[in-house]
Design brief:
heterodimer, A: 334 residues, alpha/beta, Rossmann fold, 2 domains, six-stranded parallel beta sheet, 11 helices, 12 strands, B: 348 residues, mainly alpha, two-stranded antiparallel ribbon, 15 helices, 2 strands, 1% strand
Amino acid sequence: MTDERTAGVNRRNLLKLTAVAGVVAGAGLLPARSASAAGELSLKGKRIGISATGTDHFFDLQAYNAQIEEVKRLGGEPIAVDAGRNDGKLVSQLQTLIAQKPDAIVQLLGTLSVIDPWLKKAREADIPVLTIDVGSVNSLNNATSDNWGIGKDLALQLVSDIGGEGNIVVFNGFYGVTPCAIRYDQLVNVVKYFPKVQIIQPELRDVIPNTVQDAFTQITAILAKYPEKGSIKAIWSAWDIPQLGATQALTAAGRTEIKTYGVDGSPEVLQLVADPNSPAAADVAQQPAELGRVAIQNVARYLAGETLPRETYVPALLANKQTVGEVSKKLGIG
Amino acid sequence: MLVDAPYIPPSVFGLEEKTSPEPEKSGPALGRRLATLALRGGSLAVFAGVLVFFSIAAPFFLTVGNIGNVLGQSAIAGVLAIGLTIVVIAGGSNVVTGGIDLSLAANMGLSAAVYATLAQAGQGDAVAILGALGTGLAIGAVNAAAVTLAGIVPLLATLAVMNVVAGLELVLTQNTVVPASGEFLSTLSASGPFGVPVLAYVLLGFTLVVAAIVQYTPLGLRLYAVGEYPDAARAAGLPVRSFVAGSFLASGLCGGFAGILSVSYLSGSTTGAGEMLLPVVVTALLGVVFSRRLVPTITGTLLSALFVGFLINGFQLLNISSTLVSGVQGLLILLVVSATTLLCREAV
C-alpha cells in the first residue's frame, strides 16, 4: 500500500516533473536552438560573392544590405556587386566574380535566360551558387517566398473582393521572370474556376524603367476605353510598382471603385493600402531582409557540410485593408 | 592627365607674347606639339598608372584570365564606339555640328532583337546573322539619307532615328527578354585559347581590320580629309557626301554586329539597350587622348574602351562601389574636352 502510494506519488510527481521539465525544456529549446544554430554558423575566412541585379527597389535593397550584414556578422568577407538593372553589367559582374573564385556566389533576382549560362559556368568552376528568388537548375538552393502561395492568396483576395465576377486588367510584362510567371499562373488557375471573371485582352505590359509613369499612362488609356463604372473591377500586377502607377491613375481619374492588387510590400504601396479611400486593395509583402539573411545562413550551412533543400521558403504576409497595420509593423516600416 | 596640366599654360602664354610683336612660326607649333605630347603621354601615363595600381592592389588583376575577361566585356561597347569613331572622323569632331551617331545603341538593341526573334522562329544562324547585319545597315542607310540627302544635322537626324529604332524594338519584343541559343551563339560566348573569351578575340580582330582600313589605306586618309577639311577635300575632287553617307553605313553595320555580340553575351535580346548610348559616346570622345595628334582614331577608341573596362573591373576586384566609375569617367571627359579646347584655341 505504502509502496503503492509512494510509487503513485512518485509516479505523479514524476509526471509533474517531466511536465515541468518539458515546459522548461520547451521554453528553453526555441531560443536555445536558434542561438546554437547562429552560434555554430560561421563564414570566418570565407569570401562570399553577392551579385544583385539592382538595388533600386525596396525589395532588392533590403535583401542586398541584409546579405552584406549577415556575411559580416558571420565573420566572412562580402564581395557585393550591383548591376543597376543592366543585363550587360550583370553578366560582366558575374564573369568577373567567377574569375575571383569566391567561396560561394549568391545571385539576387535576374532574368533566368540571361544569368543561367553564367551560373552554370560558376558551377563548372566549382563555386557553389545559391540564389534568391530565381529558380535555376544551377543553383544549390533558392531562398524565396512561396510564390505559389503568394499568387494564390492574392488571386483569392481579388476574386473575393470583386464578388467572383467582372473584368480585370492584368500587367504581364515579365513572364520571363520566374516569380512573376508563377504568380501570374496562379491568378489564371484561380480565375479558371470563376467563369464570370474575365481577364481583359490584350494584357498590359509593365516596363522597367519608368514603371510608375508607364503604368499610369496605360491605365489612363484603358479607363478611357472602358468609361462606364463597373466595366473594370480590378487591376492585377505581379509586383507592386505598376500597382502604384495604376492606383495613382485611378485616383486621378476618379475611378476609385476599381481595386488594385500587387506583390512586394513596397512602403509607398502599403501606405496606399492603409488609406481607406485608396483603390489599393491588397499587397502581398515578402520579407526581403529575411530572405537575404536566410540565403547567407544557407551558404554557411552548405560550407559546413550540410545538405541544403532545393528551396527555402520565407513566409509572405498578405496586407489588405484589415491587416496592413500589422504587416507594416512586422516589416519594420512606419 | 595631371602631368600635362603644367605644360599648357606656358605654351598659351608663349603664344600670347610671341604672336603680336614677332610672328615666329616655331613657337606656337612647338608649344602645341609639346602640349599634345604631354596630353597624349599624360593620358597613357594615367592608363598605365591605373593598371599598375590595380595590379598591386588586387593581385588577381594582372592575370591572362582577367585581362581576357575585360577584353570580352568591352567587346560590345568597343565595337559600337569604333562605329561612332568612323562617323566622327568623316563628319568632323565638332560635338554639335560634326559627325555623331546617336542611334547606335538603339541600333544594337533592334539588331539583337531581330536576331533573337529570327532564332526563336526556328531560323538558322546564317539567316539570323544576315537579319541582324541587314537591320544595322538599313538603320545606317536611313541616317545617311537624313544627313546627306535631307541635310539634317547628324545630332538631330540620328536622335530622331534613335527614337524610331527604339520604338521598333519595343514593338518587336513587346519590351520583353527574347532568349536565343544556338551553336554559333554558344561558340561566341565560350572561352577560346588560353581561357580567354572568344569575344575578346573578336574585339581585337575587329579593331585590327577597321584600324587597317581607316589608318593605313588611301580610303582612310580621305575619310580624315573629308572630316577635317571638307572644303579642301571638295576642291580636291573628293565626293564628300558619299564619304559621310558611307561612314553612317559603316556605323550602322557596326550596330548590327554589336547586336549579334550582345545576343551571344546575354543569351538573347534584352531590354535597356538605350542605356549603352552615353557610355559609347564617352568612350569615343575619350579615345581622342589616346591618339598621337589628338584626333579620333580606331586604336585610340579601343584603348579608351579598355580603359573604361579596366576601371570597372578593377573597382569590382577592389570591392569598391561601381557607382564611382561613371564619376571617374566624367572627370576624365571634362579634362579631355578642356585640354583639347585649350589646344584648339591656341592653334587658331
